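Second attempt. The first submission of glutathione peroxidase had a stray character pasted in from the spreadsheet, which I only caught after the job came back as garbage. Lesson logged: always re-copy from the clean sequence file. Corrected sequence (195 aa) follows.
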Amino acid sequence: MLIVPIASFSEDTYQVVELNALHNNYQFLEVLAFPTKQFGHDEPAANGTEVMNELSHVRPGNKFKPHFHLFNIVDVNGRSEHPLFKFLKNSKLKTANATRALYFCDGFKKFDKIYFSTDEKLRDVRKIGTRDHCIPTRDEFANVRELNYSPLKSKDIRWNFEKFLINKHGHPIIRYDSKSRIGDIKKDVEHDYFS
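This time the job returned cleanly.
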C-alpha cells in the first residue's frame, strides 16, 4: 500500500499520472491519496468532488481519472491531523534490511543513532531513520507562511506528495520525499512484495 497526501494545484500534481501507472503495473498495490490544504494553498477545492473535477479538467486535465483511491480533504499535520497520518509519522520500523536506502525509514541492526547510507549508484547520501519513528525526509520546513497548520513538529510531513510505503504485513517501512522518483518506489515495491 502507498499512502500519499496530494494537492491538485501543486507543482508536483503531475505525480498523479505516475501513481496511476504505478497502480496499473502493480495491481496488488493499493494507492490511497488524501488531498490536503496544508501546504502552499495548493488545494483550492472544498471537497473530494471538487478535487476530482480539478484533476479531470485542470491538472493534469485531459479527462484524467485516478485508478487509485481518492479520499476527501484531510489535515496531515497539526492539531487536527488525521489519525492515519499521526500513526504513520509515529510508527516504529518493521524491517531490518540494510541493503537499500532511498529517502526512507528502514531498520538497521543497530538503532541507537540516526543512520545514513548512499543510494545504489553512490550519487547521494540520504537519511534513513531510527527504531522509534519514521523521520522526516527533510530537516527544514518550507516557508512557514505557506504552511496552513500549527503547531509545527519535527515528524511533520513536509509537503504534498510525500509518500509512505506500507509492507504486505501492514507496517510502514519507507517514507519518501515529495520529489522521490516513482522508479525508486517501484524497486522498493518489488523488493518488499516479491522477496
